[in-house]
Amino acid sequence: MYIIRLRTVQYDELAESNGHLTYGQRAVAAGLGAGTIHRLRNGGPASATAVAAICVAYGVEFGDVFEVTPAAAPALKSPAAA
Q1: Cα–chain center distance at 58
Q2: Do 41 and 6 contact (CB within 8 A), yes or no?
Q3: Closest CA to 49 of 32, 66, 71
Q4: How far is CA 14 from CA 2, 8, 9, 70, 75, in A?
Q5: How far apart are CA 29 and CA 43, in angstroms?
Q6: 65: burial class by Cβ within 10 Å (0-12, 13-18, 19+)?
Q7: pLDDT for 13-58, tens place per residue?
Q8: What is the pTM for the complete model shown?
Q9: What is the DSSP string of 11-63?
Q10: Is the distance from CB of 62 to CB of 52 less than 8 angstroms?
Protein backbone atom coordinates (compact mmCIF):
# COMPACT_ATOMS: atom_id res chain seq x y z
CA MET A 1 0.00 0.00 0.00
CA TYR A 2 1.19 3.53 -0.76
CA ILE A 3 0.29 6.94 0.60
CA ILE A 4 0.72 10.51 -0.56
CA ARG A 5 2.84 12.68 1.72
CA LEU A 6 3.67 16.36 1.70
CA ARG A 7 7.29 17.21 0.90
CA THR A 8 7.56 19.57 3.87
CA VAL A 9 10.78 21.40 2.98
CA GLN A 10 9.55 22.24 -0.50
CA TYR A 11 6.09 23.14 0.77
CA ASP A 12 7.45 25.39 3.51
CA GLU A 13 9.69 27.23 1.05
CA LEU A 14 6.77 27.70 -1.34
CA ALA A 15 4.33 28.87 1.33
CA GLU A 16 6.84 31.22 2.94
CA SER A 17 7.74 32.74 -0.44
CA ASN A 18 4.03 33.61 -0.74
CA GLY A 19 3.98 35.23 2.70
CA HIS A 20 2.13 32.32 4.33
CA LEU A 21 3.99 31.77 7.58
CA THR A 22 1.32 30.20 9.81
CA TYR A 23 -0.85 27.12 9.46
CA GLY A 24 -3.84 29.44 9.44
CA GLN A 25 -2.51 31.50 6.52
CA ARG A 26 -1.65 28.36 4.59
CA ALA A 27 -5.06 26.86 5.27
CA VAL A 28 -6.89 29.97 4.07
CA ALA A 29 -4.75 30.12 0.92
CA ALA A 30 -5.63 26.52 0.02
CA GLY A 31 -9.21 26.52 1.34
CA LEU A 32 -8.41 23.78 3.85
CA GLY A 33 -8.60 23.58 7.61
CA ALA A 34 -5.58 24.45 9.74
CA GLY A 35 -5.81 20.93 11.20
CA THR A 36 -5.36 19.46 7.73
CA ILE A 37 -2.23 21.55 7.15
CA HIS A 38 -0.92 20.48 10.56
CA ARG A 39 -1.55 16.79 9.79
CA LEU A 40 0.14 17.04 6.40
CA ARG A 41 3.15 18.89 7.87
CA ASN A 42 3.52 16.09 10.43
CA GLY A 43 3.66 13.34 7.81
CA GLY A 44 -0.01 12.38 7.67
CA PRO A 45 -1.47 11.09 4.42
CA ALA A 46 -2.85 13.62 1.94
CA SER A 47 -6.32 13.25 0.47
CA ALA A 48 -7.01 13.96 -3.19
CA THR A 49 -8.88 17.08 -2.08
CA ALA A 50 -5.89 18.40 -0.11
CA VAL A 51 -3.49 17.63 -2.97
CA ALA A 52 -5.67 19.45 -5.49
CA ALA A 53 -6.27 22.42 -3.17
CA ILE A 54 -2.58 22.97 -2.45
CA CYS A 55 -1.47 22.49 -6.05
CA VAL A 56 -4.11 24.91 -7.37
CA ALA A 57 -3.56 27.48 -4.61
CA TYR A 58 0.18 27.67 -5.25
CA GLY A 59 0.16 26.92 -8.99
CA VAL A 60 2.45 23.90 -8.72
CA GLU A 61 2.52 20.34 -10.00
CA PHE A 62 1.97 17.29 -7.78
CA GLY A 63 5.65 16.32 -7.63
CA ASP A 64 6.70 19.81 -6.59
CA VAL A 65 5.25 19.40 -3.10
CA PHE A 66 4.03 15.79 -2.78
CA GLU A 67 5.52 12.32 -3.01
CA VAL A 68 4.14 8.79 -3.02
CA THR A 69 5.72 6.57 -0.38
CA PRO A 70 5.10 3.05 0.88
CA ALA A 71 2.86 3.00 3.92
CA ALA A 72 4.47 1.71 7.07
CA ALA A 73 3.37 -1.83 7.87
CA PRO A 74 1.38 -2.08 11.10
CA ALA A 75 3.34 -3.56 14.00
CA LEU A 76 2.53 -7.22 14.60
CA LYS A 77 1.52 -8.18 18.11
CA SER A 78 3.54 -10.96 19.61
CA PRO A 79 1.60 -13.90 20.95
CA ALA A 80 0.89 -13.76 24.68
CA ALA A 81 3.32 -15.74 26.81
CA ALA A 82 1.77 -18.90 28.17
Answers
A1: 14
A2: yes
A3: 32
A4: 25, 10, 9, 25, 35
A5: 20
A6: buried
A7: 999 999 999 999 999 999 999 999 999 999 999 999 999 999 999 9
A8: 0.84
A9: HHHHHHHTT--SHHHHHHHHT--HHHHHHHHTTPPPPHHHHHHHHHHHT--HH
A10: no
